[in-house]
Design goal:
3 domains; binds flavin-adenine dinucleotide; alpha/beta; FAD/NAD(P)-binding domain; 13 helices; 20 strands; globular; five-stranded parallel beta sheet; Guanine Nucleotide Dissociation Inhibitor, domain 1
């Protein structure tokens, strides 16, 4: 069968890989000039580095399994991570449960309660019971006090902005589960990162697809999907040269965000309503190449809404800085509405906006430390998953037979991640192959 995959991110490439192995012919169309989507890289200090910070958890079995199949599992290295939290003008170490129990930000009894509270969430196995309550309400009711108001509430606010009190509790539950699974009680957290960046995975997939029965077309944006006779689809594709070409496919898998899909094909009201009901936050990310260390942490949560960003990820506190010409690599990250004015700031204005606040993180910080900096924005970075979502998830099977959708709004209850995009990409490939086999009987 002739199959089109729209999007060369984790979901699209892993689906294409499996479809080829099932014996089909696959064309992958990608509007950007690069593969990898949200997990793609730019060159920083002579090495590839993700546009937005990326790492893996020990429970990311699907991506690990794929790396194994591609014979690149050995390139996945596990590093000891360190987590800090900025609150009330200070940095606190919050890597291990022991750190939480000695956290001077909170009164003694609250620390003990926080430690037991976190362990109690870890013990919850059935997230279905948490479906109809927001994380904010649940934290207020079950934790409350300073631990809620000084730690979790500001974290929810900085991660989800005005949606902070709408996020379903399963999101919080799954975050705690994955982070805990990657942690050892005394030793703290370990996180995975491939030698050579996430490119190692995407380059291997690209090579495989292009060498077998597939082809990846970069800078080819799919503009329209037209249902045609005999349940086939014509795709209008805006090519690299600015021409619109039309090609016919038996099956189509779109891995585009939910707000893009209805622009490609007309959809019945009910399905479109499901797609529209999930809002996305965008992300803006500044990457600084600086000559000194900013903090001692890989991951710094900002639990202070006076600071205009939600996290600082000091990549070189995980990965050796020799890969980046000896510079410290710092991501400053923010999730926000696409209408937010910060989203419209250009690279230099965003840096100027953030600069005074970096001194609050490290008072020795000086602009002269910056050797270079890079800007990236991602329009569909984080879906907002509200309560009772299991009954509202848009299905992968669309109202058109043989047309499928896979994107991050269909990952639940886990938070979006490359691991889960690979999982759904591969699941859909299996479904398509099964349907093809059934239709040939
Ligand atoms: C800041 C940030 C940090 C993250 N950190 C981590 C992390 O630490 N670990 C982790 O595992 N995950 C992380 N993620 C999440 C992870 O990157 C995503 O969940 C995953 O990459 C999504 O893959 P995807 O294939 O579903 O979608 P995408 O990567 O969004 O791929 C979709 C592709 O479709 C293309 N496309 C869209 N429309 C068209 C069209 N009309 N025609 C052709 N092509 C089109 C896009 O250009 C894109 O390349 C992070 C995400 C962000 C934003």
């Amino acid at each position: 069968m002739k199959i089109a995959v729209i999007g060369a991110g984790a979901a699209g490439l892993s689906a294409a890989y499996d479809l080829i192995n099932y014996g089909h012919s696959v064309d992958v169309f990608e509007s950007s000039y690069f593969v990898g989507g949200q997990a793609s890289t730019i060159e920083v200090g002579g090495s590839p580095l993700e546009r937005g910070y990326h790492h893996l958890f020990t429970t990311d079995y699907h991506i690990i399994e794929l790396m194994n199949e591609l014979s690149i599992k050995d390139s996945l290295v596990w590093y000891k991570s360190s987590v800090g939290t900025y609150s009330d003008g200070k940095l606190y170490k919050t890597t291990t449960p022991i750190d939480l129990m000695t956290l001077s930000l909170l009164p003694f009894m609250e620390r003990i309660r926080l430690g037991f509270f976190t362990l109690s969430i870890k013990k919850i196995k059935d997230w279905n019971k948490l479906e109809n309550i927001t994380a904010n309400e649940w934290l207020q009711n079950n934790l409350g006090g300073d631990a809620y108001s000084k730690l979790w509430e500001p974290l929810l606010r900085s991660k989800f902005g005005k949606y902070y009190d709408q996020i379903g509790m399963p999101w919080f539950w799954s975050k705690i589960q994955t982070r805990f699974a990657s942690r050892k009680f005394f030793k703290g957290e370990v996180l995975g990162y491939p030698v050579g960046s996430f490119d190692t995975i995407f380059n291997k997939l690209t090579e495989y697809i292009n060498r077998h029965n597939g082809k990846i077309f970069l800078e080819h944006q799919v503009k329209k999907i037209h249902p045609s006779i005999r349940q086939k689809f014509n795709l209008d594709i805006n090519t690299k040269d600015g021409e619109i070409t039309r090609t016919n496919y038996d099956y189509v898998l779109a891995t585009v965000p939910s707000f893009e899909f209805p622009k490609l094909i007309s959809l019945p009201k009910n399905y479109k309503k499901l797609l529209d009901s999930v809002k996305y936050l965008a992300a803006v990310v500044l990457i600084l190449e600086i000559k000194e260390k900013l903090t001692d942490y890989y991951w710094l949560n900002i639990a202070d809404t006076n600071l205009p960003f939600l996290g600082i990820i000091e990549h070189t506190n995980l990965i050796n800085k020799d890969f980046y010409n000896g510079n410290t690599i710092v991501y400053i990250t923010n999730y926000l509405d696409r209408e937010d004015y910060v989203y419209s700031l250009d690279k230099n204005d965003l840096l100027d906006y953030y600069l005074p606040h970096l001194k609050m993180i490290n008072n020795k910080f000086d602009k002269s430390w910056i050797r270079d900096f890079h800007y990236n924005s991602l329009s569909a970075a984080q879906p907002i998953i509200t309560t009772g979502y299991s009954s509202r998830i848009p299905s992968h099977e669309t109202p058109y037979e043989k047309l499928y959708l896979a994107n991050t709004t269909q990952i639940y209850p886990e938070d979006r991640g490359t691991n889960y995009s690979i999982k759904i990409g591969r699941q859909i490939a299996k479904t398509i192959n099964m349907n093809i086999s059934l239709s040939s009987y």
